[in-house]
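Help!! Second protein's tokens look totally different from the first
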Amino acid sequence: MIKDITEKEKSELTFKDKVIINVYDFASVLATALVTIMILFTLVFRVVGVVGGSMIPTLHDGDWLVVSAFDTKPEYGDVVIITQPNAFNEPIVKRIIATENQTVDIDFSTGDVFVDGELLNEPYINNETIDSDGVNFPLTVPEGHVFVMGDNRQHSSDSRSELVGFINENYILGEVKYKIFNIDEYSRQTKIYPLSEWKVN
């Protein structure tokens, strides 16, 4: 039918023909847009939700995040989604504190964290690092692994615990780039973050 219509001269088109052409054009654009979005969110970006408060104040329970799958080389400060099997049987979100071959030391009496002997400046944390969670320090991060911690240090199971340990880089799903909105688990109310708060640092 479309082929028959397109073979007509413009002056021969009826109102019905024009409606069919417009509907066909709209459907083509919509299909292209949907395929593009699917490719983007499969290969480039992913959208994931946060469960729990281990990353407060940076992230909160119920936040929905845009995660980049392109950032493959982990760096200090990156907030990442981790799929490595753990005692909780679920993906976790944490901040990279040290990368392969770096040495981590923590003074649990002062809450200070050192990487390769240098004191970290950590404006992102919610509270001091005073819980060891069973791992002895100092320790050196193995090749191909990272050491991660939650920003809510006293309420985070992370690389300080044998339940999580070092994270193999192959299990890093991607880096968290933006937090878009929050859905409260109990009230089910949705809060849209202002653009100025989207970027996750």
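Here's the second one for comparison:
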Amino acid sequence: MPIVTADQPLTSARANELIDQLTRAYPAITARQFGATAFGRPLRVLTIGTGPRKVLYTAAHHANEWLTGYILLKFAEDLAAAIQNRGRVYGVSAENIAAAATIYLVPLVDPDGIDLVTGGIQPGSLEYAIAQGLGDNYPTIPFPDGWKANLLGVDLNLQYPAGWQQARQTKFSQGYTRPGPRDYVGRAPLTQLESRALAELTRQIDPALVLAYHSQGKEIYWQFGDYEVPGAQALGEDFARTSGYTLANVPEESAYAGYKDWFIQDFRRPGYTIEVGQGVNPLPLSQFDEIYRDNLGILVTAATDLPR
């Protein structure tokens, strides 16, 4: 029986339980904590493989996009099981993937916010009351389903020093001028523990490539400003081909201060935001199997740098 099954909303407690089970069941997987949230929830990264190509996959930067966390957890299990059984993933030998790459996976960038959306934080608790108070500033946004931010009301994917002032100007013009469920950029870049920890982890790993999983829209974003990264468009076209997603330009209102923007700017290497599924966040669990099938080729291709 598989350990990772997307059969219930993904709370941080469930994610941590799954990570612990995976590391016990599969020697190929290791896990460590690389930070913590303002409310004490751990930020964890899994590692698989020993190859020279380092890649970093991240998910659930936004609270109501928690379904993306399951993508990385299931991929970790599928790859580790295939390594153990000398099998294949997406037609590629798992042993060859592990020999080619060291894959780092961060399933939950925003565990506090995720727990608010998925029921890990109960009504009546102090944490719930804090969020509800911030939500009252934006009464038209559904609570808690419309929550994207961390529990301090800061959007973690608007926290990076890559056009942050432009993002601030855009979001303030849209009315997101104080902490709340979404689109508040914070007082300055990297003020939040989660974004700061992920930036530091990225610097430590120094990866060849990053993936940032979001939902929804079935689109892949690969650009930031006028930066030209050799090979980034071609690899993005491979991703689009394997997934059926569209390689697209980032909408202007979302074009700054994101994690992949900062990575492209500071590392001058390929970074991708992948918007999975279709509909209104949070996406239903019923979409997961299709989403996972669509993205398996991306996950393997990004690790091996082999077009499929």
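Reply: Different proteins will give different token patterns, so don't panic. The longest strand covers residues 29-36.
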